[in-house]
Design brief:
Helix content is 32%, strand content 26%. With 187 residues, the chain is an alpha/beta fold. It has a 6-stranded mixed beta sheet with strand order 4-1-5-9-10-11, with helices on both faces. It has a 3-stranded antiparallel beta sheet with strand order 6-7-8. It is globular. The protein starts with a strand and ends with a helix.
């Protein structure tokens, strides 16, 4: 697989403290590297501008036919991911992602509340928990249940992080294309 990945784990945010985001981000980066992605960065508790700057760099590096994998573990609100300094609106992320070259795909793994807020944008596939409010890990330095299951699924299906596999794999009930309005309503 050819592609670039960017990973963020935000434990401290405007919505309080979580146990698992740093572990989730590091584990997803390792899984991405094992599947041939060039890991650009693993950001632990970044501010929103740092994340956006890294996303811009990742988008500039991806080429036609590549997959850009973006993972986020942290708090979410309707239409936003929560960072310590501010909520980052999904629309702001979509503006940056829309600058990718034609033919470059995006897979987003979003382990956050309200992950169904992603609006339709061609070429973006979302892998997210089926619950509106997914659970945090049971203690410090533990994975969230969703990421733990996703990593188990990746061992069984190494291609799961490709757009086609993410939307067609029955084990990923929460996986859907951002353009699939019916899938968003099922949550």
């Amino acid at each position: 697989m050819s592609g670039i990945s960017l990973h963020a784990g935000v434990s401290r945010g405007v919505a309080g403290r979580l146990h698992s985001p740093a572990v989730d981000a590091r584990d997803l980066a390792a899984a991405a590297a094992a599947r041939g992605f060039g890991v650009q960065r693993v950001l632990i508790d970044p501010d929103a501008e740092t994340f956006l700057a890294e996303l811009r760099v990742a988008v500039s590096r991806v080429r036609r036919g590549d997959t850009l994998l973006v993972t986020f573990s942290g708090h979410g609100r309707p239409n936003a991911w929560c960072f310590a300094d501010r909520d980052l609106q999904v629309d702001e992320l979509c503006v940056v992602l829309s600058m990718r070259p034609r033919g470059a795909q995006v897979v987003i793994v979003a382990d956050a509340c309200h992950s169904d807020a992603w609006r339709a944008l061609d070429g973006i596939t979302l892998i997210a928990p089926p619950d509106q409010h997914p659970r945090d890990g049971p203690g410090l330095n533990t994975r969230t249940p969703f990421i733990a299951q996703l990593l188990r699924d990746l061992r069984a299906n190494p291609a799961l992080l490709t757009p086609a596999a993410a939307t067609q794999t029955p084990a990923r009930r929460g996986a859907r294309s951002c353009g699939d309005k019916g899938a968003r309503r099922r949550r």
